[in-house]
Fold these 4 entries.
Entry 1:
Amino acid sequence: MDHSSGRCARVAPSIAVRAFLSSLFLIAVLWSAGFVWFVHDSRQPPHVATVCDGIVTLTGGQSRIETSLTLLKGGYGQLLLISGVGPHVTLDQLVRLQNQTLSSDLASRVTLGRRAVSTIGNAYETTTWARDHKMHSLLVVTAGYHIRRAIIELSRTAPDLELVPYPVLPPALEAPLSRQTLHLLIREYFKLLGAELGNLTGLPDGKIGLTPH
């Protein structure tokens, strides 16, 4: 009786299982290393601001609007778009929430974008606004954990625009990270990986993320 075929049958699944487990381990190591880098990158302070044609801030987190208003006052852009604003929110309300004031001249340079409901929507809304004003460069203001994905989506909708990232460090990232903040960072990391994959493969970037006019 030939027992070699039986031994081969037992060995083959064993090799396959080991290869599968090794692959899972490698993926876990790479994911963990990437996440550590992502957290570190998210907590980096912004570089010195660059003067651009316009400034866009993507709403959804602390300090973003305050920072963009400060940049507008500092002359780092002629116009400001605040993308993703609620349908009934006014500029006066936003300014008061930031404990700031705006002259009538500066207020006239601010546009409230009310249609975007996602980062992809922010990108489309920003692209339309920038092209309407014939802009060539944009200072992009959003949280550090969001900035890379925002730049990816904007690059896909407006490849002709020069995009200058200006990350904001939210208070939640300054202190020791809470469980809630870690959960947020994990979600954002997965979203970034998805955006990177879509950018590399050229796959459609999903729903546009704009409310109807």
Entry 2:
Amino acid sequence: MADTGVFATTAEVSRKAGANASATSNAEAYINQYMAEVESAINSMVRYNFSDNYSTLNGDTKEILKEISSNLAAIYVISYDMSGFTSRTEAEDMINVLRDAALRGISILRDKKTQEFINDS
């Protein structure tokens, strides 16, 4: 099986989910599904479909899409089964950090001038 996500890879999501994440939810098949859901959500939240032209975007400016999508997908990986973490608090802290960064990125992308900048650079 290969990565089917557009914005981020399985390896990028796995790194953010951490060493204690469930092997089941950290599998490529699960992450591919999470990425499909996350990419659709991002495109809908910002009301622009970045998936269609992602490969043509400048590498320096499209990293924000990678950050947001890998953060959100990693939240799914962690939430699937928190029993491998040293404590539930550890898992929740990781989720909070990932969520905060994703929300910051989405708020930046909602600005039409940012979308134009990403597409035109």
Entry 3:
Amino acid sequence: MAAQDAVISDGPLTQEAFYRLVACAAPQDQPCAKPFYHWQSREITVGIVQRDKPFLGGKIKRAEAAVVRALQHLNAVDMGVSLRQTADDPDIAIHLLDVARSETINLGPDHLLHGLRMANAITALDVEGSRIIGASIALSRTMTIRQYESVMLEEITQALGLLTDIENPYYQSRSIFSQNADNSLKTLGEQDKLALIRHYPPH
């Protein structure tokens, strides 16, 4: 299950409409286009598991720092899951790939990301029914270093089950899910945080 394309909307959305858009790809005032997906575990591990040659040196340091920052932002949200960084078989596995934007990812037929068309980054979930049992994120070699922090935060957030982007100019500077953004937003918007709390209510 790969992250969905964006759903078009216009102007500010109610929190209910915002949540349904990012969580189940529902256009405003319309039914869900896909199921809701949740992790069952209350602690989810995240880590970089593959570092292809183009990322060696300064790029890998920036990518690792972007993971740290993303987890800081997400763990500051009062939701019912926490994230922990590990390189040891993480639940959310991050691959820094020698694959350009628009190229096809080739990691072997059993891999979650295999056969997907690369964007700046892409997220895929391994699901059983509505339960997420694993996730993989790929970053492309053509992404610029200045985009790492924003993109890493968006992709890890999507790996929590909020898979759909918002195509709506209003959210360009207000949501990490904005399809219109230039990847300069490096924090979660207020509605992003509320959507995470709705998806994973505190204990």
Entry 4:
Amino acid sequence: MSNATVLDTAHAAMMQHPEDVQLRMSFYAILADIEVFLLLDAEPKAEMIEPQIIEVDGTRFVLGFDSAERLSAFSGGPAPYAALSGRIMVQMLAAEGAGLALNLEVAPSSIMLPHEAMLWMRDTLKASPQEAEPAPKRKGGLAALKSPDIPEVLLHALDAKLSRAAGLANVAYLVAKDEGGMMLAILGAKEPAQAPLAKAASEALVFSGLEDTSLDVAFFNDSEALRAQFARAGLRFDVPKPAEPASVQIATPGSDPAKPPRLR
């Protein structure tokens, strides 16, 4: 069987400490970000997919896996599947009244997530971030910013989110505001990338379980002078450079976040 995945690690931590809310939130945050492979009864057609469904105690569950290898191991060989981001899958299952049978029988992270869990994830992922005024317009400007006292769970959550934002920005700094709360300053993000980045930062905070913590997001043009100013007070997050352009592929069901595929 394949090596342990990031989802396996998060699941093990959650199960070892079932009372720890932050570990549960971390598991669901990872599930939202990864690619999930849904086992199908037939090849997908247009925006319609026909997943294999099992029924347990009157509840329908779609079979999903965190790798194509695990899907094949469960099915006993090659089988049709749809690869969706976790967040798109959640929208689909929440709308269709189904739960998720995740990595069933093939991984330590095997778990049955009921429809209620899909509804909760959908609603949690709708959280809207609040963007800050650019720091120079604030009273005291950048001088009013200071080093943040950041909870470790948020540190890891932001790092995970930004590590998956390749090419959307150049660098980010987390700083504390003099009037309270924190600000994530993102440098070098083009306008089309700003909303997804702000959303990612918001999700990092929400899934960290830190209800009393505020995090604003601000965007700046990149410059050595700004980097030096933020570096004096901020915690730096490097954003990976974009990958080499891949060959053009035909869009598949679930590739558009605004159009979750429909179950047949």
